[in-house]
Amino acid sequence: MAKEKSVSRRNFLKIGAVGAFATLSSTLFGSLTSFQKSANAMDKHQVHAGLNTQLHEGMKHGFVPSSEQTVGYKAAWDALTNFDYGKVSTLPNGQTFREYEITARETEVEISKGIKFPGWAYNGRIPGPTIRCTEGDLLRVKFKNLSAHPHSIHFHGIHPTNMDGLEAIAPGGEFVYEFEAKPGGMHLYHCHVAPLARHIHKGLYGNFIIDPKKPRAAAREFNMVMNGYDLDLDGENEVYTVNGYAFAYMQEAIKVKAGELVRIYLSNLTEFDLINSFHLHANFFNYFATGADPEARPNYTDTIMQCQGERGILEIVFPVPGKYMFHAHQSEFAELGWMGFFVAE
Amino acid sequence: MAKEKSVSRRNFLKIGAVGAFATLSSTLFGSLTSFQKSANAMDKHQVHAGLNTQLHEGMKHGFVPSSEQTVGYKAAWDALTNFDYGKVSTLPNGQTFREYEITARETEVEISKGIKFPGWAYNGRIPGPTIRCTEGDLLRVKFKNLSAHPHSIHFHGIHPTNMDGLEAIAPGGEFVYEFEAKPGGMHLYHCHVAPLARHIHKGLYGNFIIDPKKPRAAAREFNMVMNGYDLDLDGENEVYTVNGYAFAYMQEAIKVKAGELVRIYLSNLTEFDLINSFHLHANFFNYFATGADPEARPNYTDTIMQCQGERGILEIVFPVPGKYMFHAHQSEFAELGWMGFFVAE
Amino acid sequence: MAKEKSVSRRNFLKIGAVGAFATLSSTLFGSLTSFQKSANAMDKHQVHAGLNTQLHEGMKHGFVPSSEQTVGYKAAWDALTNFDYGKVSTLPNGQTFREYEITARETEVEISKGIKFPGWAYNGRIPGPTIRCTEGDLLRVKFKNLSAHPHSIHFHGIHPTNMDGLEAIAPGGEFVYEFEAKPGGMHLYHCHVAPLARHIHKGLYGNFIIDPKKPRAAAREFNMVMNGYDLDLDGENEVYTVNGYAFAYMQEAIKVKAGELVRIYLSNLTEFDLINSFHLHANFFNYFATGADPEARPNYTDTIMQCQGERGILEIVFPVPGKYMFHAHQSEFAELGWMGFFVAE
User: Fold this and answer.
1) Half-sphere exposure (Cβ direction) of B206: Cα atoms closer than 13 Å
2) Which terminus has fewer CB within 10 Å in chain C: N or C?
3) How confident is the model at residue B51 (pLDDT cuts 50, 70, 90)?
4) Does the distance separating the beta carbons of C166 and A59 come in below 8 Å?
């Protein structure tokens, strides 16, 4: 895999190692939030300085969260709990019919305080909407390409091959994906137009949950997409997130109740890095890779990895109240935005 | 892991992102096929341009495959279905005895249309022959080193340690590896002479299948080795394939029948990248990692990853006719050659 | 992930490929051992030349191990079999109480013959002590930060969140971590102060074994931590080891008995590389990922991978006497120090 020289980034981390950057970065961070510059106008020094300030603040247990709730921050919270069940009706044969409308277009998204990314987005969001249904439902996804580039939607799962999103839909074009939802499990979707790395990295992806016919146990449920952003187009990510916004759940923790079942639908759509991972502090979880085999025994652990396109379901019970950190166990990803908290009450 | 600067490669991808390279690449690709230059005479621009043309053509559902069947293309098809069972006889004690002859030598192989690679190859092939037998057979592998460098054969599996291929066989030398085949499962072999990265990357590897005593269910079977080629010796791969030839099964799809059981013996011998992966479109498969535990429950999914040396068995049933794409879910690997189709009829 | 240009390293490997470095490296290696220079005074050429000489010597089956037992070499052997059970007492309620004392401070460690690393170490060792106890024990870990930097201990496992090591302990400061050990399984610990990559990479980590209440079968047990060292601070590792010292178990093999059960507690704390792995020659093992689910079926294989923070338990029976190599199946890691032998007698 090609990797370019990135002196400024490493230099930055070295400065960090000797403890000198806290002052530097808070200054830069101040200017970032003031100017709300697009990422394209910043160099890696500035981007990483901003992220590190947030990291240092967020890692304090007594950290008082900012009241700033920017557009990108709100979008990440929306992505966490908002499932798109489509427009629901029942067919004459009794089958549930779900209709979704998805557009693709150029969209500038805020990926961290004051850092904007010139993305390509489904329905104006990175990640795109979390499409959710039940095994056996008939799905109709009306796709409209409002972008200047050809795009498509490739769903993971079992369906006719002419519905697999391999065909590029021209700018201005439309396509209707229609298929029966199967198998029950945790899937995802993304654009499948070449160059693939660029189309995926730009933001054209989302989670696709097919609930099994026999419902899973009741739980508080969350949706999480792990991704990265290459701001300077050097084939490396400078920012890592879940649900599109760096440190979204660190500024304010995700609220759960001690003792209740928490379920996370987790996928990896990170481009340019071969894997990503999820680590939970002070607790363990059951991990169901892909979640499509109802008889499969989960892995009981606190750390799992996924390559791009892999996904799975985590089931967690927080035994006692507390503030439980979660993050990638690749230190660099964690430090550059992929870190958050659950608070169990 | 050391990674070098590779501006030309990234520049190329950037051009791709703005849609400008289609014309550029088809021109270059034309010249590539005409001149059949060795990869050493090309720069990354040229190599990647050629690959991208093939990618763009191949991804069209209505793509009419070329009638060009070059040497490398034919070799990849041979590697897909040709299993080497050796010269078979029965020992006085009733044990099946299999004799194989394997050479190592410098071999120039064609790895994509018009791109040649100065490899080191077992029996003149990259990957080497797929050695196949049944658990409990006595194997005798006569190895002859016809190369100017020392080499060996290191088999994965259980056998006496003096048969593990750690000892380098000098140029012109011979060695006879002899051991009982076990355990039943999906294994592989490769050269184990230092520097390892170079000896493996040059092409000295292949699959090694030990059928269990109780045979697996009848199936249409395929052999696949995931690999990469570092053409400019910069410690990064420029071309990725299964079975040695970029896009081999994209120009023409692998034929299967809807409803039948398809079994794939898959390994990862990619050097320089930490993992490789296999993703199937529009369908799911059962994955038996290593395939040596007959009681193990497979993973039911559409995407799996392997580090180098890992391998496994995929069992797939294509439910309905169609053209099912498969590829690495690392976009870069897919775009640079590791992509193909099954056609179910 | 950012990767910098490292021409010298790759040039070195290229020289190796054409067979020219054996002489070169042995000369350099001689000077390395004489001068015992700190790694900071060497360039990559020198470091890699020294490692390659050891590699080439060690890979000979008839290799007579050196009688040199340097400080780092002895430390690696100590880490292999030394488990820290703490100061044990029984509480009034019958619970076992274990007290540990752990310091963090700047420590120069020898990581290969003649190569020193300016590390940060728990109790003066890289990896730190292997903390071992039984599920349900009450643990009290007195942590004293004798370093010029803030540090902490983050344990994996289930415990109150105020004991998770997120809070940085200032230079000169102390903290007492106290919690009940759970769940039974194979865990680890590391510093959790930002910048994380630097704090972990510098050496602040170790294994943490919680034996299940129902003891595992009797076995010969070993402790192994996979790690890497970035000597020139370029964000890449130049040396890879298990238990801190390159090729420690290659100079002299780890002694076991044919037929007995061997158990290895293996973790990955390698920074900068996304995964690491373990491959065993001429034999298979059962792998229990995390080892916390007593009902989980192990993977039966000879090659497993772990991302940072992952860990597991290997159970091996060596069927017959012999010298069984083990190493990372990333060739580069193996060649740069992560390689050793078991000798079964």
Assistant:
1) 27
2) C
3) confident
4) yes
